[in-house]
User: Which sequence fits this backbone?
């Protein structure tokens, strides 16, 4: 363990030095099958040639100019994401939490109303604003008081949402699939109810797609599965295949919010990160999204048949397996056998392999889990 590093993470004592596709290598040259992908980040796999070439070429050309000027990769990425969203405008930052902060500020500016309704069990990041709308007491308690005017409704309970939303509500915030909070899928009827309530009260409907976005669930945006358009959404994790980036997308029919001077980020829209993100967007054709859906179903089926797994939740390659034992123990035993998986809460195993994972690799991972859970 390394005493020069602040102990905010319960890290596994593994040091990785190299990665290729779905495989990571530690300092001793040992190979690991990576079914976490840096927590749903490295969607195209480690060192994928397309973002690698794009980022490398950009590193040779231009690193940074600030947002006092345009750069080509940033404008191209905004145009690509706008087209994907059916018309939108982008603000770029450097992480998921920053994207959430931008979304909260946008909603407040657009509505003039500070109240936010978020969901129990949600996760929106660790900065004070994002933590204020994160519905997990254990992550919040040591840092209270947080932002006022935040209420939490129960996921998939329309009555609870109706009770929480009022004419004072400026923002309804939800993850189409709760990730960190245990991989819980929101029902289409619940998301539609959130849309209606936002329309009735003049609130902004904000989707946190930091984890679900960029193909992770088998659609470019997870909200495509439920057919409900938000006013704005946040992306980050998978967008640049591992380079730091975050994005707030405000859809074209959403209320006006930001004007010059309202928000900023020195590094936001960094040309290298945006070049990588453009390459990622170019590598997500419909065939790959269909494969994500098919492979996700195969992985879910494989998991559901294993001992010790009580339920499998999620969509595409964002899966959570509800266990009958502590997830951290299973994660450690898998790592000993060369398989990397994660947790989403105390007894949920999280599987978010690269989107390019093969059927053979899925069988291999299920085989390791079968041994560990037996
Ligand atoms: C990971 C995550 C965040 C926070 O992203 P960071 O880059 O860690 O700040 C926010 N929302 C969701 C849904 C996430 O999964």
Assistant:
């Amino acid at each position: 363990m390394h005493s020069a590093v602040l102990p905010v993470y319960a890290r596994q004592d593994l040091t990785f030095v190299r990665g290729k596709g779905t495989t990571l290598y530690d300092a001793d040259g040992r190979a690991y099958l990576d079914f976490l992908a840096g927590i749903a980040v490295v969607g195209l796999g480690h060192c994928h040639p397309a973002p690698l070439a794009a980022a490398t070429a950009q590193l040779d050309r231009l690193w940074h100019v600030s947002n006092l000027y345009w750069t080509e990769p940033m404008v191209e990425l905004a145009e690509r994401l706008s087209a994907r969203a059916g018309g939108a405008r982008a603000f770029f930052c450097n992480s998921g939490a920053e994207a959430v902060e931008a979304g909260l500020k946008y909603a407040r500016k657009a509505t003039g109303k500070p109240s936010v309704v978020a969901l129990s069990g949600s996760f929106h990041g660790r900065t004070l604003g994002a933590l204020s709308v994160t519905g997990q007491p254990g992550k919040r308690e040591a840092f209270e008081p947080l932002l006022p005017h935040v209420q939490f409704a129960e996921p998939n309970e329309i009555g609870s949402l109706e009770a929480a939303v009022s004419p004072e509500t400026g923002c309804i915030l939800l993850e189409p699939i709760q990730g960190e909070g245990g991989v819980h899928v929101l029902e289409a009827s619940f998301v539609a109810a959130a849309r209606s309530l936002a329309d009735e009260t003049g609130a902004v409907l904000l989707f946190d797609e930091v984890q679900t976005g960029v193909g992770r669930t088998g659609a470019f945006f997870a909200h495509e599965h439920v057919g409900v358009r938000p006013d704005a959404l946040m992306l980050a994790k998978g967008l640049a295949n591992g380079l730091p980036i975050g994005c707030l997308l405000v859809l074209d029919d959403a209320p006006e919010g930001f004007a010059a001077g309202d928000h900023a980020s020195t590094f936001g829209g960094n040309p290298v990160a945006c070049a990588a993100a453009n390459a990622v967007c170019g590598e997500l054709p419909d065939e790959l999204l269909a494969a994500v859906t098919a492979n996700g179903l195969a992985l879910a089926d494989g998991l559901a048949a294993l001992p010790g797994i009580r339920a499998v939740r999620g969509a595409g390659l964002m899966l959570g397996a509800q266990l009958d034992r502590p997830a951290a123990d299973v994660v450690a035993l898998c790592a000993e056998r060369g398989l990397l998986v994660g947790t989403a809460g105390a007894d949920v195993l999280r599987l978010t392999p690269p989107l390019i994972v093969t059927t053979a690799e899925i069988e291999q991972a299920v085989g390791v889990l079968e041994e560990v859970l037996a």
In short: Residues 95-97, 100, 123-125, 175, 179-180, 208, 210-211, 236-237 surround pyridoxal-5'-phosphate (CB under 6 Å).
